[in-house]
């Protein structure tokens, strides 16, 4: 199998893109790094496409490895035929390979193997020949042997039937057909072990639904109910149809002595050997499908949770609510440092005295630490705590707001080794309150400290394949962290560990180096960190941010390998690197004055930079269009005012048609890039925009043609007063209409 070609077809991308991505993955580059900094190599495959590619690549490589093992095993047995070899090589799933390998797989001692040991294989062959001229019992008498423990003819026939039954069971084509029809026409049925027992599974006590249509959440619920011994779950197959199929395949000759025996053997093979295995496989397939769907939902929920915008620059009071043990409080300053903790008792069981004492304490704490925000956990006693907070805020002059925060996973974190290392002198309640406060300040930085599975992003998390769930959720965290980047001088070790190329050990080394040597002033200083070599630096550098460092580009997503190009671009447009931190890069696109010159430069760049040829080709075409279109309105206006019919005719017959042709070319180039980098959804906006420009040019051409031909005497739209786009001496403001309308900012693709 050509794995890369298979992945190409499944993803709907080009072969060279897959080849490039696979090479990068094999070289040890991570998905976030490839997605962000090797777009030119992969043709702008995004992180979602790359993760799917990676998953399929691993599966198909395992499949090919399994095929090699199977072929080798069968060949060692001397049973490998060319036909069988081709069937195995053509198999596209592990299940198909296993089906083909089943007859040749070394088996434990079965009824069939015991029968073969007794020398009953020839008798089985006679039965399968279906040409017997006398009763089978008579034929079987020849196989009676005290030495081989075959004491009667009926026992010999039974042994032969066992051999035939196993042979039917091992047939890959039969299994494939039965598996398919059971999935398409079978039903999943559940019944109660104890109909009188009360449980959350009562709706499944008498439940029946087609297997094919069974929703993922129902599958997971049935599995849990079965695991907790409330339900008995079975797959009901269309047994009669399956038996008729097998009989038709096995019984090829009507014979009075073998037909009934073979019918009984077919039924035995199906009920004893095939059906239980097919049921397990279908249950497993349904479960896998349900898990995959659930994990996808969990991933989306986690992404939304992690990507909540932070509330920076606020002193926050973290509030972990409780009843009997009291509410744990932690004050966290603007940088996330815990500057104070305490416990109050405003909720039941309490007394008016304790409630008042709690209010008095908070009335001192709030102004002392300049608290402007309360982060209240949504756990036990949250409502009661909220009522208390509302009453308190009415009684104090300070403007303080409160936010209810999802505290899922806070208890897991507070009892973790990481929390004890971070807050060695705090108890679990104090740690939990600090975590709740920090979740409001920077959700991403805080939540990465918690096992994604403990955050509570969906039902049935603990019923999932934990390895697959962990990999998926960790992938979501990795994508989020790398999308945002981290502040190298403030990020914790758990947060740094999610950065591309950084292991947990290296993350700890970065923090240790920072504590020993002070803040990082330059990205290249990372190379001094123990165990962080050039390869790791290449992958992580672009995601590390340094605010106020030696090089302003260190505070951006620009990778150090592109610094020279970025600096040249800034210089060319009249800027310095310092202008980045001074926020002076607004209106950068308006610094382009000579589109013809730019078009020529881009054309040369496309020829030089083969890996970037597509991007440079698109922008070369865009520059050419702008060079033609930018002054077209002014030229038309000047020619009209001068009554220059010759120029208007040339614009009408030559310039506009040529411009329209280039616009169609531009549209094709942009569509090619868009479809490679984004989804087709949203491209309708580009169609509308480009179509509008082309249609408007066509209308302009027709209006000019009518005027030049004398069909109309005036062009009223050219006789009105023209308003200046920018007033003299006023700063230019960049038009952001494109970002407001488009489904994606196209500049992100470069």
Topology, element by element:
Blueprint: H1 3-11, H2 15-26, H3 31-37, H4 39-42, H5 47-76, H6 82-90, H7 94-101, H8 111-117, H9 121-129, H10 136-140, H11 153-169, H12 172-185, E1 187-192, E2 206-210, H13 216-227, E3 231-236, H14 239-250, H15 259-306, E4 316-320, E5 327-332, E6 338-344, H16 352-369, E7 373-377, H17 382-395, E8 401-405, H18 410-414, H19 417-422, H20 428-441, H21 443-447, H22 466-484, E9 486-487, H23 493-496, H24 504-517, H25 534-540, E10 544-545, H26 563-572, H27 578-581, H28 595-608, H29 613-629, H30 632-641, H31 645-677, H32 683-708, H33 737-741
Parallel strand pairs: 4-7, 7-8, 9-10
Antiparallel strand pairs: 1-2, 1-3, 4-5, 5-6
Tell me the number of structural domains: 6
In the CATH hierarchy, the architecture of the largest domain is: Up-down Bundle
> How much helix, percentage-wise, in residues?
55-70%
Q: Count up the helices.
A: 33
Q: What proportion strand?
A: 5-15%
What is the C-alpha radius of gyration, as a whole number of Å? Answer: 37 Å
Described by strand count, sense and barrel closure, the largest sheet is: 5 strands, mixed
Per the CATH scheme, the topology name of the largest domain is Four Helix Bundle (Hemerythrin (Met), subunit A)
CATH superfamily of the largest domain: N-acetyl-b-d-glucoasminidase
Counted beta strands: 10
Shape: extended
